[in-house]
Amino acid sequence: MSSPFSINGGACVAMRGKNCVAIACDLRLGLQSLTVSNNFPKIFQYSPTAFLGLTGLATDVSTVSELFRYKVNMYRLREERDIAPKTFAQLVSSSLYERRFGPWFVSPVVAGIDGKSGAPFICGFDSIGCIDYAADFIVSGTASDQLFGTCEGLWEPDLEPDDLFETISQALLNAVDRDALSGWGAHVYIIEKDKVTKRLLKGRQD
Amino acid sequence: MNHDPVAWGRPRDDIYGSYNPSYLPPTRQPYSSHPPSHPTTHTQSPVVTGTSVLALKFSTGVVIAADNLASYGSLARFTDVKRLRPFNRNAIVGFGGDVSDMQYIDRLLLSLVVQENYAGGGESVTLMNARNLHTYLSKVLYKRRTDFNPLWNALLVGGLDEHQKPFLAYADLLGTTYSAPSLATGFGAHLAQPIMRKVVPDEAAAAKLSKEEAVKTIRECMKVLFYRDARSMNEYSLAVVDVRGVELKEDNKLEAESWAFADQIKGYGTQTV
Amino acid sequence: MAALSHHHLSSTAPFAFQQAPPQNHSGEPTQHAFYPYTDNGGSTLGISGKTFTVIAGDTRSTSGYNINTRYAPKLYPIGGQGPTHKGSKIVLSVVGFAADGRALQERLDTVVKMYRYQHGCEISVKACAQRLSHILYNKRFFPYYVQAILGGIDEETGEGALYSYDPVGSYEREYCRAAGAAASLIMPFLDNQVNLKNQYEPAAVSGFDKKQLVPQPLERPQVEELVRDAFTSAVERHIEVGDGLQMMFITKEGIEEVYFPLKKD
């Protein structure tokens, strides 16, 4: 439990649907078993349709999310366009590998829709930037085992946005309820080509 | 107090007299060669060891093999140790692990066979079958691990069960047991099992396999093991158990070895090109 | 230094070190004690219904990354007659250290058979469950390294009865429980699908006034499908789970066994 990845706790999951993607996270921030905050979102937006979820050491979650804000702003200034999710994933990967021998203690998840083609995209990373492309779902955080179970059991191909919302919400809520270090509510983003819906879920408060 | 580095902390013999060991717990091992006043000793790691044992079921019986080497660490110490021990006409045991523990178990088995022979010699009386033998051995092993005094072996029991059908099972120092159409201990689990499982992926395949095919597969596996297991040798015992009884040959030599692949191996720091 | 001159005496002392104790130069901790446990992997689960209980387990046995065998049952009928457990209506599942599991099964089976011999009637699941707890607790300081689940029929109500245990005998009656290597994957799925956790009535008003769905005992076909889904999911994401799925349905008529192949990779 002294692993930097499990001091603060937290969970994040992304899923692919039919012409849409979803990404969700819990809201807990803790110090070992003591809950410090129940409003610590772990999902950050970097373009109209590119999102990043970060679990792991909370200080690194904050720092890395700010680092990417800076990097994506620089990208936008230089390129005069929004960053595509696939490009953003490469940026995340190379930025993490830059710290190969003193890594950020985070497990990132990228979810988004390509601005031009409208293709849904999700991927996950280890803490040193190895990309895990997936056609179904990506999980991360202290509840990752539980999330693997619920996602593998509930997810199916080509879900419509509403059904995808229900699936990812149930997968997350039931997973974090079996993890002592995650929970206390959730944020869920449903990302379509021209629309992003953010919902706040009230989960168990224990 | 004795300050001798090899007896530090003990009462000095010149002052207190030599230590009276009669207060020590008596040795419990029935076959122990220690005088009873010595402390109980447990095997905490194996000393002279045998490597893999392989076995395969076929339509009417079981083939089992193990090489004749007993190693002392990395030293090939004894080259004529027979690690397949026939029990009766129904069963045979293959031993991996500590050789002295093997010899102890062998004495247990001998006393069982003697009892069985006193009870009628096997013609009129139902003989113990391979399943009975495996159950017995696994209970001995489990009891010893529970007493923190393990018998440091992994064994395969092969032969015929109560219905004269092929039987093959594993047991080890922890009391772990399992059964499968093909089994291997030690390195064999890594190197030989993949080859054997190609031949007998399941019980149905084993029920169709001929004795000749099974023997051929086992011989091939022994060769692979000799190529890659540094604690193996090219002389081995091989036994076939079926309704005709145990047919054991203890001086098999590896045939048609091919070291042609050896000069293709590059790396490991010894070659520069 | 006087003591050192008595060196020769030490060679006769029963405890003298004839050899110096092994020195460890590698910097790694020296391993000396025999470790009496191992983990044989696999997973089990149990669900109780209105008139039945199902206990399920995969049939793979592992040690480390090796597959020992593809068929090693973790489900044991308890009691009944003879070595085939004819007429038994209690099933024990054990996952963890298989040798301890086997020993535990034999202990409980003997106890249940002795109960019938002494009392002339079958033991109740409730009593059997408590006895199992005691057997486990009796080895509190050298535990059976297993997670056990016991299933049967509650003879007072005729409903399915399911009990789950920790290795030292702490136990509880539940409607559903997953155990073993993939328990953390399966359990939240079961919470959701069996106990309807986090599910609310769709027709009710939105917001905080939504009503939690009340779990109802499931029918057998639904349960069988859930068990298969739970295991095929676990097989995808856990390397120690696979090869085959064994299910035992316990009803007032007895035990019905179902086998279903799983992926062997």
UniProtKB/TrEMBL annotation, chain A:
Stretches of the chain forming a coiled coil according to its record: none
Nucleus is among the record's keywords: yes
Chain ranges passing through the membrane: none
Compartment(s): Cytoplasm; Nucleus
Pfam families listed in its UniProt record: Proteasome
Annotated keywords: Cytoplasm, Nucleus, Proteasome
A GO term from the CC aspect: proteasome core complex, beta-subunit complex
BP-aspect Gene Ontology terms: proteasomal ubiquitin-independent protein catabolic process; proteasome-mediated ubiquitin-dependent protein catabolic process
An MF annotation (GO) of this entry: endopeptidase activator activity
Record's subunit section: The 26S proteasome consists of a 20S proteasome core and two 19S regulatory subunits. The 20S proteasome core is composed of 28 subunits that are arranged in four stacked rings, resulting in a barrel-shaped structure. The two end rings are each formed by seven alpha subunits, and the two central rings are each formed by seven beta subunits. The catalytic chamber with the active sites is on the inside of the barrel. Component of the proteasome complex.
Described function: Component of the proteasome, a multicatalytic proteinase complex which is characterized by its ability to cleave peptides with Arg, Phe, Tyr, Leu, and Glu adjacent to the leaving group at neutral or slightly basic pH. The proteasome has an ATP-dependent proteolytic activity.
Family: Belongs to the peptidase T1B family.
PANTHER family, A to Z: METALLOPROTEASE TLDD, PROTEASOME SUBUNIT BETA TYPE-3
Entry protein name: Proteasome subunit beta
Source organism (scientific name): Baudoinia panamericana (strain UAMH 10762)
Lineage: Eukaryota, Fungi, Dikarya, Ascomycota, Pezizomycotina
Automatic annotation (TrEMBL), chain B:
Domain of life according to the entry: Eukaryota
Pfam family, one: Proteasome
Keywords tagged on the record: Cytoplasm, Nucleus, Proteasome
GO terms for cellular component: nucleus; proteasome core complex, beta-subunit complex; proteasome storage granule
Ranges in a coiled coil: none
Subcellular location field: Cytoplasm; Nucleus
Extent of Low complexity compositional bias: 32-43
Leader sequence residues: none
Primary localization: cytoplasm
Listed GO biological process terms: proteasomal ubiquitin-independent protein catabolic process; proteasome assembly; proteasome-mediated ubiquitin-dependent protein catabolic process
Region called Disordered, residue ranges: 19-46
Keyword Cytoplasm attributed: yes
PANTHER family: METALLOPROTEASE TLDD (PTHR32194), PROTEASOME SUBUNIT BETA (PTHR32194:SF6)
Function: Non-catalytic component of the proteasome.
Family in the record: Belongs to the peptidase T1B family.
Name of this chain's protein: Proteasome subunit beta
Source species: Baudoinia panamericana (strain UAMH 10762) (Angels' share fungus)
From TrEMBL, chain C:
Gene Ontology CC annotations of this record: cytoplasm; nucleus; proteasome core complex, beta-subunit complex
Record bears the keyword Protein transport: no
Protein's cellular compartments: Nucleus
InterPro entries reported in the protein's UniProt record: Ntn_hydrolases_N (IPR029055), Proteasome_sua/b (IPR001353), Proteasome_suB-type (IPR023333)
Single GO biological process annotation from the record: proteasomal ubiquitin-independent protein catabolic process
Main location: nucleus
Domain of life: Eukaryota
Keywords: Cytoplasm, Nucleus, Proteasome
Pfam family, one: Proteasome
Full protein name: Proteasome subunit beta
Source organism of the structure: Baudoinia panamericana (strain UAMH 10762) (Angels' share fungus)
Source species taxonomy: Eukaryota, Fungi, Dikarya, Ascomycota, Pezizomycotina
